[in-house]
Write a structure and sequence with these properties.
mainly beta, about 180 residues, 8-stranded antiparallel β-barrel
Length: about 180
């Protein structure tokens, strides 16, 4: 019986020692890994450092600036009547605008079509881009918008007239610009 009491007392002591050691904090201190030949036998004392006192953060003196994405003030969406080419052929086109990007496709009536892809300028005064025909021709275009955004005059590669009107079917004068 004395042996059972000793075993139980030893088990309780071991359990108590494990419980106490698990609740105590353990600090691991490491020393530098580089060792000079002269310093091999020297002990390096470890001195705890003080925690610096919190300092107040100064108020900023300048206001942060944020990049602003300009809003598009021009809306060219919808049906237009355009005149293009040296013969100033009248065509119907439907422009689609997404942000500053403008796309339009017009059937030329002879089984061909013209695709216009351009970008509205940030100041809203013009549109520049490229055009291409299903017949294989292509080039650059520019549209100079009027203040009401209902008409434009321009060109398709320099001296080729290109103009349009969204409200009336009357050709802007002058067409070539």
């Amino acid at each position: 019986m004395k042996r059972n009491t000793t075993i139980i007392l030893f088990a309780i002591s071991a359990l108590l020692l494990v419980v106490i050691s698990c609740t105590l904090p353990i600090y691991i201190v490491t020393s530098p890994t580089t060792v000079d030949e002269d310093d091999e036998d020297k002990d390096v004392p470890v001195i705890p450092t003080q925690i610096p006192a919190a300092t107040e953060t100064p108020n900023p003196t300048s206001t942060p600036t944020y990049a602003v994405t300009p809003t598009v003030s021009v809306n060219l969406d919808g049906p237009w009547t355009i005149w293009e080419g040296t013969a100033q052929k009248r065509l119907d086109i439907d422009f689609l605008q997404k942000g500053y990007d403008l796309t339009g496709n017009a059937a030329t009536g002879d089984g061909q079509s013209l695709l216009f892809e351009g970008m509205v300028s940030y100041d809203g005064t013009n549109v520049t881009g490229t055009w291409q025909s299903t017949s294989g021709t292509s080039g650059n275009f520019i549209m100079y918008l009027d203040g009401s955004y209902t008409m434009f005059s321009g060109n398709m590669g320099g001296g080729v007239p290109f103009c349009g009107n969204r409200i009336k079917s009357s050709k802007p004068d002058p067409c070539l610009r």
